[in-house]
UniProtKB/TrEMBL annotation:
Residues 8-65 form the HTH lysR-type domain. This is HTH lysR-type domain-containing protein. Coiled coil: none annotated. The lineage of its organism: Bacteria, Pseudomonadati, Pseudomonadota, Gammaproteobacteria, Oceanospirillales. Gene3D superfamilies: Periplasmic binding protein-like II, Winged helix-like DNA-binding domain superfamily/Winged helix DNA-binding domain. Belongs to the LysR transcriptional regulatory family.
Length: 303
């Protein structure tokens, strides 16, 4: 027997989706234009409807229950299909759209590209907004299939027939150190690189930086001082200690303007890091998605 939707407020599904994607009631409310009391009331109504707490408060925010995680696998894609259907009927112009695009893009994208992208949107499509998330521990294919994201910026091609991608250039790796480092002069040597302590990046508890993947067994052995999840945190450590850090060159340019650090060429032969823009194949023909995709490609290739 089909569940009777007559007495269910389907707007509650967007509340559920927003809390799942942001992990915080206040951020979800900002995304939907709702006050926190209104969000709390809506979530309570939904809990009664599905007979499950759905979320439990923790220090990190709102942690989903197993039922919520399972339900999101169905609700997320369904809401995206509804949005796509409505948008395709209206075929709105970018300057008239109120669409929210979700990007799976880490600290690198936020530091290098986010500000110029937002400037472009304010001029050409002021109603469009962005939701920036990191790739979950479950990986890119899972995040896209669950309806969590519209795009991802990554350094590996997706191994999934349901995802499209295009190359958006590549990035050289450099090593940042504090200015006037006591053991590193104008040239960073292999010995310097191996002997100094390193700051590396880890997201969702997993080391995800591409240096180890690109170099494989040939990578130099490093002594790790700290694992961090944000580049600004790394730069703060670098400028106040003797530690060093391997990062993309464009990011180094940004950090050198903000912190007392300097960049050195990577001391070993190293392939450039490829950059890929990835999106779900089901959204490829969506007019607004295509417009935003072109803006992303132009921006990344131009900087």
């Amino acid at each position: 027997m089909k569940f009777n939707l007559k007495g269910v407020d389907l707007n509650l599904l967007t509340v559920f989706e927003a809390v799942m994607e942001t992990g915080q009631l206040s951020k979800a409310g900002d995304l939907l234009g709702m006050s926190q009391p209104a969000m709390s009331a809506a979530l309570q109504r939904l809990r009664i409807t599905v007979d499950d707490p759905l979320f439990v408060r923790s220090r990190q925010g709102m942690e989903p229950t197993p039922r919520a995680i399972d339900w999101y696998q169905t609700v997320g894609p369904a809401l995206n299909q509804i949005r796509l259907s409505l948008e395709s009927r209206k075929d709105p112009k970018p300057e008239e759209s109120q669409r929210v695009f979700t990007l799976l893009a880490g600290d690198y994208f936020e530091s290098v590209y986010l500000a110029p992208l937002l400037n472009t949107l304010q001029k050409e499509a002021p109603g469009i907004s962005l939701n920036l998330l990191t790739v979950s521990a479950d990986g890119l294919p899972h995040d896209f299939k669950s309806g969590k994201a519209d795009f991802a910026i990554h350094y590996q091609e997706p191994d999934d027939s349901g995802l499209d991608f295009t190359s958006v250039g590549e990035e050289r790796l450099v090593v940042i150190t504090r200015k006037n480092h006591p053991r590193i002069g104008e040239e960073l040597t292999v010995d310097n690189y191996c002997q100094e302590r390193h700051v590396i990046f880890a997201v969702n508890g997993q080391q995800n930086f591409h240096l180890d993947i690109l170099m494989g067994k040939q990578r130099p052995k490093r002594s790790i001082l700290a694992r961090v999840s944000h580049f600004n945190s790394a730069a703060t450590i670098i400028e106040t200690t003797d530690a060093i850090c391997t990062i993309p060159e464009r990011l180094a340019d940004v950090l050198m303007a903000r912190f007392a650090v300097e960049a050195h060429p990577f001391p070993l032969e190293m392939p450039a890091v490829p950059k890929k823009l990835i999106w779900p194949s089901v959204l490829a023909a969506d007019p607004l998605h295509r417009w935003f995709r072109e803006k992303l490609i132009q921006l990344i290739l131009s900087r």
